[in-house]
Design goal:
This protein has 149 residues and is mainly beta. Helices cover 12% and strands 48% of the residues.
């Protein structure tokens, strides 16, 4: 189960590039339901996500590089590329901001995602001041939707 809030970020913290990060490439084999393939650094995954905005089921299965390359040729829409920085949430040792800085077609787009253990915790979350608009419930910045633009 994935419980996640998503925010648009207009101005990230000045030091965000000093935090740990991953290089991500992902594409979609299907967007209803969501079936995604992802390369994260040197790891490869196939992911199924159910419908939903704040809460949805998510299953990750490992792939090897050859399977990923094969499936990438079958992907629909745009291939998304981004660098994901892992920033601590001030005052919350149990939470991490996944700051996605997009490149390629979506260069300039920055999104922040925070995953929670419960829906109650997600609803009570007070975002850091540098977060801009909460886009969790709009769906407009879901990666599966971006891949179709």
């Amino acid at each position: 189960m994935e419980i996640e809030r998503k925010y648009l970020v207009e101005v990230p913290p000045a030091d965000y590039e000093s935090f740990p990060h991953h290089e991500i490439e992902q594409a979609y084999l299907c967007t209803d339901p969501v079936v995604r393939i992802r390369r994260e650094d040197d790891s490869f995954y196939l992911t199924y996500k159910s419908k939903g905005l704040l809460v949805r089921e998510e299953y990750n299965l490992p792939l090897n590089a050859d399977a990923y390359a094969h499936l990438l040729k079958k992907a629909d829409g745009k291939i998304l590329t981004k660098t994901r920085y892992l920033l601590p949430v001030p005052g919350r040792k149990d939470l991490t901001v996944e700051l996605d800085v997009f490149s390629g077609k979506f260069a300039g787009l920055i999104l922040a995602e925070v995953e929670f253990a419960s829906e109650e915790d997600a609803n009570a979350f007070i975002p850091p001041e540098w977060f801009s608009r909460d886009v969790t419930f709009s769906g407009e910045y879901q990666n599966s939707r971006l891949s179709r633009l």
